[in-house]
């Protein structure tokens, strides 16, 4: 189905903007392996986030998550657990299993939609580490408490900030400076998009060195595999796109935030709930919790029929996806009532880098119409 207003509409550099870089990469005969574009891109990422973070680039965030677990916790024997939410994208759980662990799904807080601090504390003795997630790329307001639990219990803390490059925490800093490291995706569907790509940002210089080694077959300064690695390297073409995209990121985020605030003020009047601190994020999604009296399923169906592509992210949650249903011995959970409940009511609206006013208005007027006709007392 073709939508008048698609859920996601990435904007990429025009042909003429990228032509020179393309020729330069081909002429220099240096396509990957930490070439000049990757070096420059890495420096620009560090500069953007500030706070003395070091960047390590990746070919995608899933490989980045795998490297982060390998670099901080080491390979597991298939029996031990890493805590994470079920209400997120599947990649983190798959990285945990490939790294030789099992996900321990911890229930979420029904306001932040992220692992509840008390629930995490209850299972902390049973896990080797924590994969926290800044869900929807929104800087979680409880991050300080989460860091405290991890530090107090000496557990590594990896933060999956995949969709959140350019988002800010409530302390005003950019995502990328919390936990032991934060993992970002630059996939085409994220607000900061380069095609396929990702990065890990960390304040730990030794960890950064180790992660870079892991992305490059475990090679140190020579072609000698000093440890177990794989190929996680970012191509020069993608790095070149990234350098151009970064220059435009602030303007795109400002425009997304403007669209989001129009959505939020209209929808909050109808009883929809916004996610805390979403307004300070880069808004790859525009998530809201639908009031039960209106009904999420009917609303999403209605919008889709009317050419507006809304989605139910992250429904179904990870533990209800087929692989996890059929492999019940691969994970544990601490009760997932809030997760289930949120999954029944969450949805996200289309949001673009430069969304036209008429499109924002048409999304809101359709929701207004549906709510009026279908609201149950
Ligand atoms: C997009 C996303 C990923 C995966 O990123 P890739 O670069 O596609 O591997 C992982 N976690 C979350 C929360 C995401 O949103």
Approximately how much beta-strand content do the residues carry? 5-15%
In this entry the ligands are:
pyridoxal-5'-phosphate
Instruction: Give the helices and strands as they follow along the chain.
Output: HHEHEHEHEHEEEHHEEHHEHEH
Total strand segments = 11
Derived structural class? alpha/beta
**Per the principal axes of the C-alpha atoms, what is the gross shape?**
globular
The level of helicity is 40-55%
Alpha-carbon distance between the termini? 33 Å
Number of helices: 12
* Average of the residue pLDDT scores: 97
Give the secondary structure arrangement, pairings included.
Layout: H1 15-28, H2 36-49, E1 54-58, H3 61-72, E2 81-84, H4 91-98, E3 102-105, H5 117-123, E4 127-133, H6 143-152, E5 157-160, E6 181-185, E7 198-202, H7 205-215, H8 236-269, E8 273-274, E9 286-289, H9 296-305, H10 322-326, E10 332-333, H11 337-345, E11 346-349, H12 357-374
Parallel strand pairs: 2-3, 2-4, 3-10, 4-5, 5-6
Antiparallel strand pairs: 1-7, 6-7, 8-9, 9-11
The protein binds pyridoxal-5'-phosphate.
Please give a structural write-up.
With 377 residues, the chain is an alpha/beta fold. The protein has 12 helices and 11 strands. The strands form 2 sheets. Strands 1-7-6-5-4-2-3-10 form an 8-stranded mixed beta sheet, with helices on both faces. The chain has a 3-stranded antiparallel beta sheet with strand order 8-9-11. Strand 2, helix 4 and strand 3 form a beta-alpha-beta unit. Helix 2 packs parallel to helix 8 and helix 3 crosses helix 4. The two termini are 33 Å apart. Bound molecules: pyridoxal-5'-phosphate. Pyridoxal-5'-phosphate binds next to helix 3 and helix 4.
């Amino acid at each position: 189905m073709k939508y008048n207003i698609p859920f996601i509409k990435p904007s990429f550099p025009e042909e003429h903007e990228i032509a020179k870089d393309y020729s330069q990469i081909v002429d220099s005969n240096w396509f990957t392996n930490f070439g000049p574009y990757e070096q420059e891109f890495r420096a620009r990422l560090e500069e953007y986030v500030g706070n003395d973070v070091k960047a390590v680039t990746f070919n995608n965030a899933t490989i980045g998550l795998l490297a982060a677990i390998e670099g901080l916790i080491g390979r597991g024997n298939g029996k031990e657990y890493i805590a994470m939410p079920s209400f997120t994208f599947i990649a983190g759980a798959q990285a945990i299993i490939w790294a030789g662990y099992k996900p321990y799904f911890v229930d979420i807080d029904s306001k932040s939609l992220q692992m509840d601090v008390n629930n995490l504390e209850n299972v902390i003795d049973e896990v080797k580490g924590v994969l926290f997630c800044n869900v929807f790329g929104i800087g979680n307001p409880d991050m300080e408490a989460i860091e405290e639990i991890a530090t107090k219990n000496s557990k590594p803390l990896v933060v999956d900030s995949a969709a959140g490059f350019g988002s800010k925490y409530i302390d005003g800093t950019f995502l990328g400076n919390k936990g032991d490291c934060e993992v970002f995706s630059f996939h085409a569907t994220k607000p900061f998009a380069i095609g396929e790509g990702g990065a890990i940002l960390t304040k730990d210089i030794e960890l950064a060195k180790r992660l870079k080694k892991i992305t490059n077959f475990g090679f140190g300064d020579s072609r000698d595999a000093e440890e177990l690695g794989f190929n996680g390297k970012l191509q020069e073409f993608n790095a070149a796109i990234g350098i151009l995209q970064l220059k435009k990121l602030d303007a795109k985020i400002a425009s997304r935030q403007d669209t989001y605030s129009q959505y939020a003020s209209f929808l909050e009047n109808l009883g929809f709930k916004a996610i805390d601190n979403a307004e300070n994020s880069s808004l790859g999604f525009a998530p809201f919790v639908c009031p039960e009296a209106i009904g999420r399923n009917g609303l999403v169906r209605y919008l889709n029929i009317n050419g507006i592509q809304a989605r139910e992210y992250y429904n179904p949650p990870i533990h209800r996806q087929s692989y996890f249903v059929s492999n019940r011995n691969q994970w544990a959970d601490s009760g997932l009532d809030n997760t289930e409940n949120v999954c029944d009511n969450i949805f996200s609206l289309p949001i673009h880098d430069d969304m036209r006013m008429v499109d924002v208005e048409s999304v809101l007027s359709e929701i207004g119409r549906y709510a009026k006709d279908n609201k149950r007392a």
